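Ticket reopened. Same input as before:
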Amino acid sequence: MKKVYEHPKSLKRAVFHYCPGCGHSIAHRITCEVIDEMGLQDKTIGIPPPGCSVFAYHYFDVDMAECAHGRGAAVATGIKRAYPDIVVFTYQGDGDLAAIGTAETIHAANRGENTTTIFINNAVYGMTGGQMAPTTLRGMKTTTTPYGRDHVIEGHPIKMSEMLAPLEGVAYIERVAVNSPANIRKAKKAIAKGFQMQLDKRGFSMVEILSPCPTNWKMTPIQAWKWVDEEMTKIFPLGVYKDVTEQKSAD
Amino acid sequence: MTKVLMDGNSAIGEAAIRAGCQCYFGYPITPQNELTEYMATHLSRRKGCAFVQAESELAAINMVYGASVVGARAMTSSSSPGISLKQEGISYLAACELPAVIVNMSRGGPGLGSIAAAQSDYFQATRGGGHGDYRTIVLAPSSVQELADLTMKAFDLADKYKIPVIILGDGVLGQMMEPVEFKKEAPSVLPVRDDSLRGAKGRPSRIRKTFTSNPAELEEINWSLFRRYGLIKKEETTCETFMTDDAKLVVVAFGIAARIAKGAIRNVRAEGLKVGLLRPITLWPFPDEAVKEVAKNVGHFLVFEMNMGQMIEDVQLSLEGKGEVSFYGRPGGVIPNPSEVARVISRLYYQKGLK
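Engineering reply: fixed in the latest deploy. New output:
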């Protein structure tokens, strides 16, 4: 009989605390599958953020180090510089990476740190109860944009993949989604590519994952999955924003 | 061993390298730039070592956190406004029981303040500084030689107690040049702590974290930290006493202020006034037992600080109401000379009828 699914070795057998329809659990699982398939479980350190995925260390069965809100890229830098043999990934939300940690993210990318970032974009602060994120869409209602995000007052959704891609230290950036089996397969490939870039010492890699948050979007899981396709990808188009694979190594 | 002439900031850098410091992360701010530059020159190309000029003090302290997670000896330095920014990371280091050495070549405040030497960061350094219940070991050198010695000691203390250690200097100590002798050679094999995260090879995966949804668990973490702080207080409290044996009045001062006070005490001793000095070397833990001991024979204390009166609270707490405490403070980066302090001492001496 053909085996179609196996519990990843590097995913602990714990029950996810995430809401039904949330993208985090899928992003966790495919990251763990990549870690297994690339044989990285015993040489990886993961850096989870404050936010809904603060308990990621209950799920990832690799060494994990909690860090302060937004500082993932700096902590990853410290780890990688002190011990270059380790594989480091940060797992960050939109508030973490694109608001409070913008400076750390941009400069780690620009330095070309050999680290991989899994960037969960769900357009909202999830754990704190659904406030506006830097990636909240125009017109979108959140607890701190109760009248809908008005760009004149609250600014525009920030596009991190587009912003970071031109930096010379960046090796690979792709925006994916986890709202359909086909998209999940693409997302997994992108994560694998990100880790490969790190192993090849090509520089900073990031996979931005559009991730449904039915609870704070006030939708059913199915509505949320559709909303990713119909609304989010208009502002955050899926695709590869940077890939230096074909270029000669910088060294 | 031969002595070399060095500025204080560079001496810290050399001492750190000889103590096996592998990683330095910094951000420019006066008056500590010579240390960052020393590490760029002497550490950045060393085998197994790393130097990063970070994008901010926040990033620098979080890089220290990362390096400490993987078991490296790591250090950062800054001056007062930059140290405020590092408090977030220091709280996390303390919470996660991670060693680190943080140098504060402090300057006048509040705000952007001035670049002149001051001691206004005493409270921030000795009360934890960031959010939450925690302490850091705080070392207060008063010469370039002591900067070097205490830097080496700071790395050992940090590792021994799994705690961030603050070296609280000031602009004068950082900038002035003195002969210094380094009492250690740099190790050829760099140390790695055995509780570090380096990938779960042949062992279960490890987690470095503090966040918990269970307050009882966090309470236990706090209890555990404070049990260790009790041990540090017992084992590591240090101070210097100078001419206290026959003293009727004792000046309490730390760092560069103690150096100035020593000059002042020599001046007034020449005039026959029996004055001594108590100089805390560890500001936290504060040498309260030593203060109590001196107070057995001395009724009058003069606390001299280059701030508006911060350490005076620890002196008063140590004395538990015994003895009389006076204060002379110069905030904002003003550095009095020994003769000014001598005048304050002798005025107090005569006013209190000690002659």
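The mean pLDDT of chain B is 97. The domain at 4-236 of chain B is CATH 3.40.50.970 (Rossmann fold). Please confirm and we'll close it.
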